[in-house]
Design a protein that fits this description.
The complex is a heterodimer of chains A (232) and B (204).
Chain A lengths: L14 H18 L1 H21 L6 H29 L3 H7 L2 H30 L7 H28 L4 H28 L6 H27 L1
Chain B lengths: L6 E11 L2 E11 L4 E5 L6 H8 L7 E7 L13 E4 L11 H8 L5 H11 L15 H13 L5 E5 L7 H14 L4 E5 L3 H4 L4 E4 L2
Parallel strand pairs in B: 3-7, 3-8, 5-6, 6-7
Antiparallel strand pairs in B: 1-2, 1-4
The chains are: A mainly alpha (232), B alpha/beta (204).
C-alpha cells in the first residue's frame, strides 16, 4: 500500500512566500554572519597567501583566472553547504518543512547562495587586483562572466547542500560531492576569465550562453529532485 | 475555516527502525470534534506515530489519509495542520514575533501573531531573539506557532513539557477551546494532559 500524507501546497513558489523565505535567510545570516565571515576570511587569507608565495611576480592571466575561481569556489563551499546544514543542525528543518513549500525553500536558498557568491566575488576580485595585479582588459566580458559564474555555481551546488544536510553530512563532504559537478562550469569560467584578462576583445557570448545553459540545466534537475530530497 | 470535512484515517500502519518494530497494524480514525491521546512508555513510538499521522514521516507500511477542505486525496497543504513538538524548533536568530510571522499565512497575520503573543504572555519578549528565550517561553512560542493559522488539525507532542503552571493552564484552555470542532492528536506521558482528550491509544 502506498502511504499518502499531507503535502505542502502543490505548484511553484508564491511571491509573498518566497519573499518571506528570502528575508528569513538573509536576516538569519545577517545576525550571525557565519557563512559570510568564514567565506570572506578564507578568500582574503587564500589570496594573500598566494601573493606571498608568488613573491611579487605577476602570474599569467590563465593562472590568475584559475586562482581566482579556485579561491571563490572553495571560499563559497562552506557557506553554500551551511544554508541547509544549519537548518538540520538547529532543528529548524522541520519547522521550515511545515511552513514553506519545497520549491519556495529551494528558490530562497538559491537566491541566498547567489548573494553569498556575489559577496565573495565583490571582496575577492579587488583583493586579486591589489595582491596579484589582476588587470582586466575586456571589462564587459569579465563582469558578465563573474555574474554568470555566481549563478552557475549556486545552481549547481544548492541542491547538493540539501542532500548533504539530509544525509547528516558536513561541509567537507559537500566540497567533495560538489567538485565533480562544477568542473565543466569551472573549466569554462577559468578559460573565459583568462581571455578577458589577456586582451580587449568582443563580448564572450559563447561562454556566457554555455554557462547560462549549464545553470538552467542544473536548476531544472534541482527543482525535479528537491521535493524528494527535502521531504524524505 | 470550516472543519467538519476534515479527518485522519490510518489503515494498518506500521513503523520499524531496522529490525525493531515500534508498532504494527495500527488502524484508527480521528474526526473533527475528537481528540486522541497517544500514550505509552518512552521509546514506544508515540512521537513517530504522531509524525506519521501528521504526514511528516512515512510509515514503514500502511496508509494514512488526511482529508481537509473537501480534498480527500491527501493533497492537503500543511497550512491545515498545526504541529508542535521537540523536533520543531523556531529559528534561534529570529525574534519570537518574526518566527510567528514566518509561520503565519493568509491575511491579517500580523494581528493574529500579535494576539497570540499577548495571549501566551510573550508580548514583553516579542522582539527578543528566541535563542535568549527560556525553555518554557520557547514552548509557549511553539504552541503559538502551531495555532497561528487556526488549523483544523492540531498535533501536539508532549505539549506541557517545560511549561509552568500558568503555561499548562493556557495549554488546557487552548485545547478546551478547540476540542469541539477540531481534530486534536496528542502524544504524552502526562496523565492530566491525556485526560484532556476524548480517546486514548496506548503503545508499547
Amino acid at each position: 500500500m502506498t502511504p499518502t500524507r499531507p503535502r505542502s501546497a502543490p505548484g511553484g513558489p508564491r511571491l509573498g512566500e518566497l519573499a518571506k523565505n528570502i528575508r528569513k535567510d538573509l536576516t538569519v545570516e545577517f545576525r550571525n554572519r557565519y557563512a559570510l565571515s568564514v567565506a570572506l576570511a578564507f578568500a582574503a587569507v587564500a589570496t594573500i597567501a598566494a601573493s606571498i608565495a608568488l613573491a611579487g611576480t605577476v602570474p599569467a592571466p590563465r593562472v590568475q583566472s584559475a586562482l581566482l575561481w579556485i579561491v571563490v569556489f572553495f571560499a563559497a563551499m562552506n557557506g553554500l553547504a551551511h544554508a541547509f546544514v544549519r537548518e538540520e543542525e538547529q532543528g529548524t528543518a522541520l519547522f521550515l518543512r511545515l511552513h514553506a513549500t519545497p520549491h519556495t525553500v529551494l528558490t530562497a536558498k538559491l537566491v541566498f547562495n547567489i548573494a553569498l557568491l556575489a559577496a565573495i566575488e565583490t571582496v575577492a576580485i579587488p583583493l586579486f587586483v591589489v595582491f596579484l595585479q589582476l588587470e582586466v582588459r575586456a571589462l564587459h566580458s569579465f563582469v558578465a562572466i563573474a555574474a554568470v559564474g555566481c549563478l552557475c555555481l549556486a545552481c549547481a551546488v544548492t541542491v547538493l547542500g540539501a542532500m548533504v544536510a539530509r544525509a547528516g553530512g558536513r561541509g567537507a563532504l559537500f566540497t567533495v560531492i560538489a567538485f565533480p559537478v562544477v568542473i565543466p562550469a569551472l573549466w569554462v569560467l577559468i578559460g573565459a576569465t583568462a581571455r578577458s584578462l589577456e586582451r580587449p576583445g568582443p563580448f564572450d557570448s559563447g561562454s556566457v550562453l554555455f554557462l547560462l545553459a549549464f545553470s538552467g540545466a542544473m536548476a531544472g534537475v534541482s527543482y525535479l529532485l528537491f521535493e524528494h530530497i527535502w521531504e524524505e | 475555516m470550516r472543519n467538519t470535512d476534515s479527518a485522519i484515517a490510518a489503515h494498518d500502519v506500521s513503523a520499524r527502525f531496522g529490525r525493531v518494530a515500534l508498532f504494527e497494524g495500527l488502524t484508527l480514525t480521528v474526526a473533527p470534534g475528537e481528540s486522541l491521546a497517544i500514550v505509552g512508555p518512552n521509546g514506544s513510538g508515540k512521537s513517530t506515530l504522531l509524525e506519521i499521522l501528521a504526514g511528516l514521516r512515512r510509515p514503514t507500511a500502511g496508509r494514512v489519509l488526511f482529508t481537509a477542505g473537501g480534498d480527500d486525496d491527501a493533497r492537503t497543504d500543511r497550512s491545515r495542520i498545526g504541529f508542535m513538538g521537540p523536533r520543531v524548533e523556531p529559528y534561534p536568530d529570529l525574534t519570537g514575533m518574526e518566527n510567528l510571522l514566518f509561520a503565519a499565512r493568509g491575511g491579517s497575520s500580523r494581528e493574529r501573531a500579535a494576539a497570540l503573543m499577548e495571549r501566551f504572555a510573550l508580548r514583553p519578549h516579542r522582539d527578543k531573539l528566541t535563542r535568549h528565550y527560556s525553555s518554557g517561553m520557547r514552548q509557549r512560542l511553539k504552541l503559538a506557532i502551531a495555532l497561528v493559522n487556526d488549523p483544523p488539525a492540531l498535533f501536539l507532542d508532549e505539549p506541557g513539557a517545560m511549561l509552568d503552571e500558568a503555561g499548562r493552564a493556557l495549554l488546557r484552555a487552548e485545547i478546551d477551546a478547540r476540542r469541539a470542532e477540531r481534530i486534536i492528536v496528542m502524544a504524552t506521558n502526562d496523565a492530566d494532559e491525556a485526560a484532556l482528550c476524548s480517546r486514548r491509544t496506548a503503545l508499547g
